[in-house]
Design brief:
This protein is an alpha+beta fold and about 425 residues long. It has 3 domains: about 120 residues, Ribonuclease H-like superfamily/Ribonuclease H (Nucleotidyltransferase, domain 5); about 140 residues, no CATH class; about 60 residues, no CATH class. Helices cover about 25% and strands about 20% of the residues. The chain has 11 helices and 19 strands. The strands form 6 sheets. The chain has a 5-stranded mixed sheet with strand order 3-2-1-4-5. Strands 7-10-11-12 form a 4-stranded antiparallel sheet, with no helix packed on it. The radius of gyration is 25 Å and the shape is globular. About 35% of the residues are buried.
Length: about 425
């Protein structure tokens, strides 16, 4: 008689994030859910979008996740609620859910699944929070250094560095993982990828230490270049567009290396944009939405012309970089990708503005200060936002130069000149 036990189904990792209309699972709905399922060392990305009930929606939650902006974008499609729930239930069945505050995500999914399943919590009972995991790693380093140096002050250094309550973005940076770029933060897939990278930074050995002798030789030949200062510049970068405030001493980079990553990342990424901060710190925004930053503390910024043989490369970065014309297609097939906010907008950014025009004699026509065209002036805005403004109109030939960080999205007038709201000059 055989005493062999049947092989257990392997526990898959499910890097998960849920965007919701608020924080109360009884009042609010999940509207975007991403699951990155890791199986046999390969990551498979899944995203579903479920049209929520906005009756009790929290306006702040919608603002943070840019709900109205994102769902109004061209190409946005809602999935059928029941079909999406059944797909997600199958993906998470038996998996270990990993994320940033996955207990919250699990609670929101439980209420979604409860409409269709008797077992609304199909995942493994122990979810894993990457911030807690990373903090444990940092305190583990403090314990090791305390033993080596006979100096218990390391615990206090960690506590001061990560704050209390723990700030997930700060914790992430202390394990050499940059938070998602502004355009990808608070999107389900962007945050799921971020959680995946923190997990890998803590649990997966750096390729340098896990490499064979042959791989080390290849790295030593031409692969590793620290902190960008020694990296060969080889590709043109796009502007680092953001909706956040940017100090005037921050510089947008025009060129950068072909591939970058930190020591904690499991794969190489393609830089889309680059920013140099005071004291020389450089952060690259990648095509997939992640940031790769170098600092004196991290000290592990890697930049190469070509990744060492056998090392992973981010497929999203590779495809988008080729599709946008930054580099040749890795497949040999023509790829197309159109980055947002790079080309001038179809409609002038001064459209419907009450300040970006110069009124001409007669009061019916004004010269647009953004593009130079003559356009009608009208009363508009209704009782709640009444104003006298220039009408919506196509972008003219004399459009001002864009801000490297905000493009044409935050134009205003100061001392009779058109500038970006951040203070950077624009010239026609």
């Amino acid at each position: 008689m055989s005493t062999d036990r049947p092989a257990r189904k392997p526990r898959l990792l499910a890097f998960t994030d849920v965007e919701t209309t608020g924080l109360d699972p009884f009042l609010h709905d999940a509207w975007e859910i991403a699951v990155i399922l890791r199986h046999d060392g390969q990551d498979h990305e899944h995203v579903v979008r479920i049209d929520p009930d906005l009756t009790n929606a929290d306006p702040e939650a919608l603002r943070i996740s840019r709900y109205h902006e994102r769902t109004a974008a061209a190409g946005w499609v809602w999935d059928d609620r029941e079909t999406a729930a059944r797909r997600l239930h199958a993906l998470l069945d038996g998996a270990v859910m990993v994320g940033s505050n996955p207990a919250f995500d699990a609670e929101m999914l439980t209420h979604l699944f409860g409409r269709y399943f008797n077992q609304p919590r199909p995942w493994h009972y122990r979810t894993i929070d990457v911030a807690t995991l990373a903090v444990g790693s940092l305190y583990g380093r403090a314990a090791e250094r305390t033993r080596n140096d006979c100096d218990a002050s390391w615990y206090g250094k960690v506590a001061r560095a990560i704050g209390w309550p723990w700030r997930s973005y700060t914790v992430s940076q202390h394990v050499d993982i940059e938070p998602p770029a502004p355009e990808d933060a608070h999107t389900a897939l962007g945050d799921a990828r971020w959680a995946r990278d923190i997990w890998d930074a803590v649990t997966v050995p750096d390729a340098f230490y896990a490499a064979s002798d042959e791989q080390l030789a290849a790295m030593a030949g031409d692969a590793l270049s620290r902190m960008h200062r020694g990296a060969a510049v080889s590709v043109v970068l796009l502007p680092p567009v953001t909706g956040s405030a940017v100090d005037l001493d921050v510089e947008a980079l025009a060129e950068g290396p072909r591939f970058v990553r930190t020591r904690g990342m499991s794969r190489w990424h393609r830089p889309r944009s680059g920013t140099r901060y005071p004291q020389g710190r450089v952060v690259y925004g990648c095509w997939c939405g992640y940031g790769v930053g170098g600092s004196e503390r991290a000290g592990a910024f890697l930049a190469v012309e070509e990744p060492p043989p056998g090392e992973l490369v981010c497929g999203t970065c590779e495809g988008r970089a080729a599709g946008a014309g930054q580099d040749d297609s890795p497949t040999g097939r023509p790829l197309v990708f159109s980055p947002r906010h790079v080309a001038p907008p179809k409609n002038c950014p001064a459209s419907r503005s009450s300040v970006l025009f110069q009124e001409l004699p007669g009061g019916r026509v004004g010269r647009c200060l953004a593009c130079g065209d003559m356009q009608p002036l009208r009363a508009m805005g209704g009782p709640f936002n009444p104003r006298y403004a220039i009408v919506q109109h196509p972008t003219g030939q004399a459009l001002v130069e864009p801000c490297p960080f905000h493009r044409w999205r935050q134009l205003t007038v100061r001392d009779g000149r058109v500038v970006c709201a951040c203070g950077r000059e624009t010239t026609p």
